[in-house]
Amino acid sequence: MPPTVRALVALLYATAAATVVVELVNWAYAPEQGFGLAVRTGWALLRSFGFLILVWHVRRGRAGARPLGLILAVTTVFAVGRLIVPRSGVPPLPGAVGFALLTALCVAVVVLLYRAPAVGAHLVRHPSRLVIDRRGIGWQEGVPRRPPVAAWTLTARVAAFTYPALMTVPALFALGHGGLDRLPLVLGWLVFAVAVGNVLLPIAIFLMRDRAWARVSLVVVTLVVVLVDLPLCYVLLGLDGLVRDGGPLLVAAAVTLWGVARSRTAASAPVPAPRTEAPMPDTVR
User: Fold this and answer.
1) CA-wise closest residue to 241 among 87, 75, 96, 77
2) Distance separating alpha carbons of residues 197 and 195, to the nearest angstrom
3) CA–CA dist 215, 207 (Å, integer)
4) Can you give the pTM of this predicted structure?
5) Torsions phi, psi for 133 (to 5 deg)
6) Can you tell me the distance from the alpha carbon of 110 to that of 113, in angstroms, rounded to the nearest whole number?
7) How many CA atoms lie within 13 A of 113 on its CB side?
8) Does residue 23 contact residue 41 with C-beta atoms inside 8 Å?
C-alpha cells in the first residue's frame, strides 16, 4: 500500500479506538445510566466495528470504502455528540475534549478518502466473486460488465441503508421509557423500520444499474421515512429525542438526496465523442 493509504489505515484504527474511549468516558460522567443511554451507547460503540470493517475495505482497495467512510464519519459525530450533551447543564470537560478529538479524526478520515490522490488511485477494486473455469473453482475480482456507477450513487446507497438502524435505536429507547399505552405505537415503529429495510434492498440493486425509477423510488422512500420518523421521535421522546435521534436520520436523508441528485447529474452529462485525427497529407507521410 502507498504511504498515504497506510496513514489512512492507522487513522481509522485511531478513530475506532477514540469512539470506544469517548463513549466510556461519557458513560462514566452521565448523570443517568439507564436503559436509554445503554441503547444509544451500544449503537455508538458498534460504529467502532464499522471503522474496522472500513479498514478491511481500504486494505483491499475497494471502491465502496469512500461512501462507507463518509457515512460512518458523519453519523459517528452526530451519534456521539447527542450523548455528550446532557439534558441540562454543560457537557463534562473530558467528554467535550474527547468529542472534539473524535470530530477531528472523522474530518481527517473524510479528507483523506476524498482528497488524497493516492487513496483515490488505490480504491478501485471490485468485490470478489466465485468463478468456475478450466482451472477449477476460485475467487477473483468481479469486474462489472456494465459501465461503473457514479461515486455519489454508492454514497446514496450506503446512506439509505442506515435508515432502519437509525429508526430502531430510538424505537428501542422509547420501548424502555414508555408505558403499555405506547407499546402499539413503538411496535409499529419497529415494524416500519424492518419494512423500510426490505423495500430498500431491490431499490439498491437497481440503483447500482442506474435505473431512473430506482432513483425516484429512493427519493420517495427517503421522504416517507423522514415524515414518519421525525413525528414519532417528537411524540414518543419529546423535543430532546427529536434532536438527538431525528437529527442523525435527517443528516443521512440529506446525504442520500444529495447523492441521488449528483448521480443523476453525472448520468445525464453528455459523453464527449472520441477525437479523430485528420489524415496526414501524402507529402508529410
Assistant:
1) 87
2) 5
3) 6
4) 0.69
5) -140, -165
6) 5
7) 29
8) yes
